[in-house]
What does this fold into?
Amino acid sequence: ILNVEQSPQSLHVQEGDSTNFTCSFPSSNFYALHWYRWETAKSPEALFVMTLNGDEKKKGRISATLNTKEGYSYLYIKGSQPEDSATYLCGQNRDDKIIFGKGTRLHILP
Amino acid sequence: DSGVTQTPKHLITATGQRVTLRCSPRSGDLSVYWYQQSLDQGLQFLIQYYNGEERAKGNILERFSAQQFPDLHSELNLSSLELGDSALYFCASSTSGGTEYEQYFGPGTRLTVT
It folds into this structure.
């Protein structure tokens, strides 16, 4: 993998269900991985910065895990709510900059 | 509200023109980053300044330039504008120069080139 890739591109989830999506990145020379939440018509908001292999971070119903050896991170949302509708971006630190994926667009269905 | 301010919110201009986008970082933050979000593109890093000095550069076009002033606000200058420069331009700030820190994004400036 050469770029930061996120899957799926778009996801529809029923309110109350749990969901997860993936960020894949080059595993060599890993330094840090960022997750951001981006609501429509707003600006990206930091969720997590993860640096260590095996890291697990949690903020309310949202959590993330990191595997630097195989080059992936999962973001989990438990019991989805309408306010979780947003685009979730991951970005990898590389050469003093953050390279972002194109995001996973999450739609919560009432 | 992240504490990062950007002006103007919207800008409409013609091809060939020059514009300046302004960003004020959160109080106490020394780093400013500029990003471009185009249609169907992810967030593309343009340039970073730390305490007045350029620290990292992304795929920033030669027609674009930036600077950070002693009061830490930053300006992004876009010249000889082309239709393809139409995009949302974000500024973000962080406490330190390293990109392992959280970045706080401003509301963005939407540039439309006609």
In short: Chain B has no helices and eleven strands. Residues 93 and 112 of chain B are 24 Å apart (CA to CA). Chain B touches chain A through 22 residues (CB under 8 Å). The mean pLDDT of chain B is 94.
